[in-house]
Structure formats: structure tokens, C-alpha cells
Design goal:
The two termini are about 15 Å apart. The strands form two sheets. This protein has a five-stranded parallel beta sheet with strand order 2-7-1-8-9, sandwiched between helices. Strands 4-3-6-5 form a four-stranded mixed beta sheet. By secondary structure, the protein is of the alpha/beta class. The chain is globular.
């Protein structure tokens, strides 16, 4: 069984991490792709767990060495996806999910058009503003910039395969889970060279149980 990549995008504050965290315990073969960023850690964030926190110079070197699958600038900081983790997990038969902005998603789409692209929406602009303020991690100026950016991001929803409105965390997580499980069932993900042996040994749906 071939693994695959799920790209989750959406405005800052849409709830991408919350939705993903609710899905992980329900899909054993789902792995999270940790991004590299030049953004300083927020309170409670841990290096190599939430992000790989790197300097501008270190980020430049990773680009020079062609170690990133994609990279993007967002509200003054740089983000990127290490190639090795994504490819290794897919080759091992796992699904990999990453949360990146539309710039990074566009780069992924060119290099891996077979990936699954999902856009997460907040129910209203007012709710998005409320969530950003409740974080307590950004200044009013940064929040204003994030809100302005969100209007531009939402215009790109037409480039995605699926969308989810996060007006209820449980419902949004269930929708994401259904999308991933449906993608697992694509016949194109079966290794046809091993089909006879797999069938004789018995098919398994454990990837989504």
C-alpha cells in the first residue's frame, strides 16, 4: 500500500492544529510533518516537536543544499518542509499530513500533484478575529496583518480538493478523518506487484480503524 501526503491550509487561527490533533489518535498510519521556521517559539512550543526552529542563516543553507520540499514567507517569517521525513514516511506506507500556507501548498502542488489538498475555513471573519485575540501570543498589529492575509488566502480555496468549515471541532475533525480514510481506499494506492500476495494474506482496513 502506497502512502500519500495531505496538505492542510487555512488562515492563521482557523484551527488547523486542533483539528489535526483530534484526528491523529483515530488513524494509526497518519504522521505529522514538522516544518522548519525562522519564527521564534511561542510559549510552550518545543524545538523539533512543534517546529524545527532555525536562524535565517540556517534556513538559507537548507535551501542551498536542496533539503526543503517547499518554503514560503508569512508575516515576516520563513517556513519550509524537510524532504527526507515526507518521502521516508510515504515510502513506508504511511499518510503524512502537513499544515502550510497557500504559498507552500502551491509549490507542493507542482512537485507532488498526487497529494491531497484540504482547506480549513473559520465560520466567520469575526470568529477568526476572536480566536486570534484569545491566543494572546500576537500583538494587535500582527493580528491585523493576519486578518488581512486571511482574505487573500481564502480566494485560493478553488485550488484545493476539499474544504472544511471549522465551526465545530468534533465535526471538522470527523470530516478530515473521512477524507483521509477515503483517500486510503483509492485503488491507485495498491501496489499491484504485491496484490496477489496481499489478497491471499487477507486485505486489512487497519489504516483507518
Amino acid at each position: 500500500m502506497h502512502g500519500f501526503l495531505i496538505v492542510l491550509s487555512g488562515p492563521s487561527g482557523a484551527g488547523k492544529n486542533s483539528v489535526m490533533n483530534a484526528v491523529f489518535p483515530t488513524i494509526p498510519n497518519l504522521k505529522y510533518s514538522i516544518s522548519v521556521t525562522t519564527r521564534p517559539p511561542r510559549v510552550g512550543e518545543v524545538d523539533e516537536v512543534n517546529y524545527f526552529f532555525r536562524s535565517e542563516q540556517e534556513f538559507d543553507q537548507m535551501i542551498k543544499d536542496d533539503l526543503l520540499l517547499e518554503s514560503a514567507n508569512f508575516v515576516g517569517y520563513r517556513y519550509g518542509t524537510p524532504k527526507s521525513f515526507v518521502y521516508d514516511q510515504i515510502h513506508a506506507g504511511n499518510a503524512v499530513i502537513m499544515d502550510i500556507d497557500i504559498q507552500g501548498a502551491a509549490q507542493i502542488r507542482k512537485k507532488m500533484p498526487e497529494a491531497v489538498f484540504v482547506f480549513l475555513l473559520p465560520p466567520t471573519p469575526e470568529e477568526l478575529s476572536k480566536r486570534l485575540k484569545l491566543r494572546g501570543s500576537d500583538s494587535d498589529e500582527v493580528i491585523k496583518r493576519r486578518l488581512a492575509k486571511s482574505y487573500e488566502e481564502i480566494k485560493h480555496i478553488v485550488d484545493y480538493d476539499y474544504y472544511i468549515v471549522n465551526d465545530d471541532l468534533g465535526r471538522a475533525a470527523d470530516q478530515l478523518r473521512q477524507i483521509i480514510c477515503s483517500e486510503w481506499s483509492r485503488v491507485s494506492r495498491i501496489d499491484m506487484k504485491e496484490l496477489k500476495g496481499v489478497w491471499e494474506g487477507g486485505f486489512s482496513g487497519e489504516t483507518c480503524e
